[in-house]
Amino acid sequence: MNTRTGLLALILAMSISTALAGEADVENVKILPNGSNSWTFQVTVRHADEGWDHYADRWEILAPDGKILSTRVLAHPHVNEQPFTRSLSGTTIPDNITSITIRAHDKVHGYGGKTITLPWPPADK
Question: Would you indicate the residue range of the signal peptide (predicted)?
């Protein structure tokens, strides 16, 4: 194999590997009241994290108009922990909000995986 063919094969292999990890999906959301109109969100995310260059790096709570209400930054890859759940406490949601959407983000694909939309406020408030 000549150098050019080898380089093309390497680039193709890297592209396929990155594509296989896919987008970050939100699998579950649990909402717990803290009192004083504050909430804790426990969000379960699934993503085929590959290491520091390709991992789910945050999840967000969105208003119906797409405005980001809160963000939970994920500081490291979860290669051997899938799916994983992380919490965000002290979140307040404005009174005029009727639904929220939780989405995840990964360092390569950005947004686009499975989201979860819930009515707001929660039925058991």
Answer: 1-21
CA-to-CA distance for 33 and 22, rounded, in angstroms? Answer: 33
The most confident of the ranges 6-15, 49-58, 63-72, 104-113 is 63-72
pLDDT band at 124 (very low <50, low <70, confident <90, very high): low
Q: Which long-range contacts (CB under 8 A, 24 or more apart) does 109-117 make?
A: 109/21, 109/22, 109/23, 109/24, 111/23, 112/23, 113/22, 113/23, 113/24, 113/25, 113/26, 113/47, 114/25, 114/26, 114/27, 115/26, 116/26, 116/28, 116/29
Tell me the residue type at 10: L
CA torsion, ordered 19, 26, 116, 71, to nearest 10 deg: -100
Task: Please provide the size of the chain in residues.
Answer: 125
pTM, rounded to two decimals: 0.80
Does CATH number 2.60.40.1930 belong to domain 22-119?
no
- 104 vs 47: CA distance, rounded Å: 9
